[in-house]
Amino acid sequence: MSDTRFDVIGIGNAIVDVLSHADDAFIERHAMTKGTMALIDADTADRLYADMGSAIECSGGSAANTIAGLASMGGQGAFIGKVKDDQLGGVFRHDMDAIGVHFPTAPAAQGPATARCLISVTPDAERTMNTFLGACVELGPAEVDAQAIQAAKVTYLEGYLWDKDEAKEAFIAASQAAHEAGREVSLSLSDPFCVDRHRESFLELVEHHVDILFANEDEILSLYKVETFDEALQNVRGHCKIAALTRSAKGSVVLSGDEVHVVDAENVDKVIDTTGAGDAYAAGFLFGYTNGHAQDLAHCARLGSIAAAEIISHFGARPETPLNELVADIFG
Amino acid sequence: MSDTRFDVIGIGNAIVDVLSHADDAFIERHAMTKGTMALIDADTADRLYADMGSAIECSGGSAANTIAGLASMGGQGAFIGKVKDDQLGGVFRHDMDAIGVHFPTAPAAQGPATARCLISVTPDAERTMNTFLGACVELGPAEVDAQAIQAAKVTYLEGYLWDKDEAKEAFIAASQAAHEAGREVSLSLSDPFCVDRHRESFLELVEHHVDILFANEDEILSLYKVETFDEALQNVRGHCKIAALTRSAKGSVVLSGDEVHVVDAENVDKVIDTTGAGDAYAAGFLFGYTNGHAQDLAHCARLGSIAAAEIISHFGARPETPLNELVADIFG
What we know:
The structure is a homodimer.
Chain A: E1 6-11, E2 15-21, H1 24-29, E3 37-39, H2 42-51, E4 56-59, H3 62-73, E5 77-80, H4 87-98, E6 115-121, E7 127-132, H5 146-150, E8 152-158, H6 165-180, E9 184-188, H7 192-197, H8 199-208, E10 212-216, H9 217-224, H10 229-236, E11 242-246, E12 252-256, E13 259-263, H11 277-290, H12 297-312, H13 323-326
Parallel strand pairs in A: 1-5, 1-8, 2-6, 3-7, 8-9, 9-10, 10-11
Antiparallel strand pairs in A: 2-4, 6-7, 11-12, 12-13
């Protein structure tokens, strides 16, 4: 892996999160499915926002959160994603610049506003998301900076991109550019409904394009249309080079050829908000993987668990405590 | 106090906070005075923002925070302040609407952007603020909704308004409208440097216009140019009807004629961010004062302490836990 300026380059939706506390009645009233993500149009976003409580805004986006986590670990990250040239687009860009992430994608001068994800956090710390994709729909193959892709050890893609044809083309173009340069490609399945919408293509992707797959339990069950985690595990084994399957409080299971690791979750005093837990796990895992521990997948998984534990212990999907401080003692 | 739809109406700068962690070197590098607020222009705001870490955005503004705290206690609040018709202005308005606060001020269609307060929170949980007033400079006497003022038991003004002539006129107009209707006027001194900039006018204000004064230790020392808290206390006594002086971990002292109360601070497990502590104290105090406890100032002070303790236990200046839940047991 020579000539690599970046450990990981993420490609995903560039989104500002709007986080608010909500009760279960709110989730029911708006016919939401708790713990999942739904796509909404601009009018629905306005209507829903008007019914939400007082909120905080912070940069989000699944792959973007992972790259932010990687940077917080001390890794070199880059990100491709589309914002508009508006105030919230400026917030997103600032937060990438501030953590030293290379973000070459020019903002859109016209068209829909910067994407927003309206996140309702219920008292059980579960988050339910409604995303207005806004300027993200402008992301296409033209935005795929092949030079940056080929300068990254791993190209990390979020499954959410599959929801738009243009972004899907960007996804494939990025994957091809990475493999041409002998780099690896990683995919996060993002959401069980997202998997359900695109099962056949995802199965083909995993088989032909993906080296490192991240999925949580619901997502991997959905991918293989099976009922138990063990069935999913048997299916995914050998389907791609490495699969890292997260199971919330049960920790994670990592598969690679004959290798299997079952790694515990880190203890958390109080779970406040699970938004971004999976993104953070991928950040820790990929940091370890691209920084000398590719042969020690259990160590990568443990770094993922530590990052996820930090994220769920506060409101919001990006680290409050620098992750490199949390892993300083185990990363000698 | 009949015909009062509102417990308190606040008049202040309508600001979106941009909160970031910073180290002491950052504070020194930018020649900031820790714990205080400085006014900055648009260029400085851009330059400073570019050097700040990853941030979160949330509605702020001193008087606006107090009204948000009052609403969280279960009180009826209103707010007068100027945003622009832009994305951050929309965020500020949403957060007022979402908590049921009456906010009649129309947004500016032209001119500078919605105000931002760049807040650097150091590891000691102290906050240092740099404010770009933006659209707030459009606030003038024309925005003072006399009907709303006269429908409020207390009109609450932040000292920061004194920094702009137009806003100062709005301040005086509001105070006169309130007194004409037999209502009371409350002032928060906001910041020791703000007091230093306007000492003579503040002294006259306190003597002739203010019924309830809020100040922290630095501010009240600055107002009377004295060295010790006890000297300040002797000066303020009798200078206005009620003075509520906050002293961080030492609690607060409330003076009214011959009456003196020394009330302890509430215990906090870990102080995370002191932004908005004084605003929250005023919220709790005024909620008690306007809801049947005007004759029990020690009780008002205790409500203030409880509200302040909630605010300093997390990042950000508005309540995360509904304050009415925290005081349910003592507010029978």
